[in-house]
Amino acid sequence: MELAAAKLKFIEAWGKLGSEWGINRTMAQVHALLLVSPEALTTEEIMEQLSISRGNANMTLRDLIGWGLIEKQHKAGERKEYFFADKDVWNIARQVAKERKKRELEPVLKILNELSTVNGDEKDPEFVTFKKSIKDINKLAGNVDKTLETMLKAEESWFWGSVLKVFK
Amino acid sequence: MELAAAKLKFIEAWGKLGSEWGINRTMAQVHALLLVSPEALTTEEIMEQLSISRGNANMTLRDLIGWGLIEKQHKAGERKEYFFADKDVWNIARQVAKERKKRELEPVLKILNELSTVNGDEKDPEFVTFKKSIKDINKLAGNVDKTLETMLKAEESWFWGSVLKVFK
DNA sequence: ATAAAGTTTCAATAATTTTTGAAAGTTTAA
DNA sequence: TTAAACTTTCAAAAATTATTGAAACTTTAT
After folding, report:
1. Is there a single domain that holds both residue B74 and residue B97?
2. Count of domains forming chain A
3. What are the chain A neighbours of B143 within 8 Å (beta carbons)?
4. CA distance linking residue B61 with residue B42, whole number of Å
5. Where in the sequence is the domain holding A66, given as residue range(s)?
6. Is the CB of A130 inside 8 Å of chain B's CB atoms?
7. Per-residue pLDDT, A167
């Protein structure tokens, strides 16, 4: 396979994966493009390579910066802004984990904790079932949270070394 | 908080979480409803409690069965079909992991492996960067895949015991 | 065979999400 | 201060995704 075709295929696959996981397809594609670009790119170049509008490119780039996945770069003597992606895949994974934990897991944990305080009749099967399910989900979510917490602090080699060693 | 209010809040929160993770909101809500219901419910009851149409209920229930999260139940002497959810949260987590691995991770791994075979000029930074990124992502995805594989086979207590012990 | 009870399908509609593009805003250099 | 270069905003349009509802279909009992 040729490089140009491979790049397109990667961008498409990354975009699809993103959309399946609740990440805007264009955002995933812009990230993919920057991931495989040795040099920082301008908004113009991104617009052109992905055939997207200026507005879309601008918003998407802002979002990616908000996720901590890309950064602006200013080249000496140039007006234009350049964008480049952190190429360290472990940093990327941690950054995504960190943001989704904060934006999605934590709010749900908060609600689950509130829901744990519900009171009712211990003889009512509706009540008993509700409480049990909430308790179990809460416990699982807590374990996921703790694991992510560890992942955020860990070095890649240490993390996978430990996890995979346990599982051999 | 009262049970009725708590149930609504749980269904809403579960629906939101689902939609953030690429799962149809209604599907997550129906699942939530069945999770906290001690008895199996009919399509009618689900339609009514969630204010959704018959068609939507039917499709959603079919999807949930496809995901292995709920089952049909037939009560003796009754024509109606009843639906109930597996209440074991670890089974649920494994089932979701299993399906998403199959539907999303595996296709991406296949593409990444194809993309690893790309050939080009080792002096071309475009080529070198592409190859490196693909290789790194491939490795990470492989580790995720192996960990999920282990999770699918594991008992809950063993899995979290091992993972959290490593991280203490 | 018929009809009642229940289930499934799917084209049309609605809701949501994403994208556009042009206008407004900002920065820099002369 | 002006104007060119560039960036940002956001209302409107487009695209996508989810939902409805009525007709078709299936099953069961009589």
Report:
1. no
2. 2
3. 160, 163-164
4. 10
5. 3-85
6. yes
7. 65
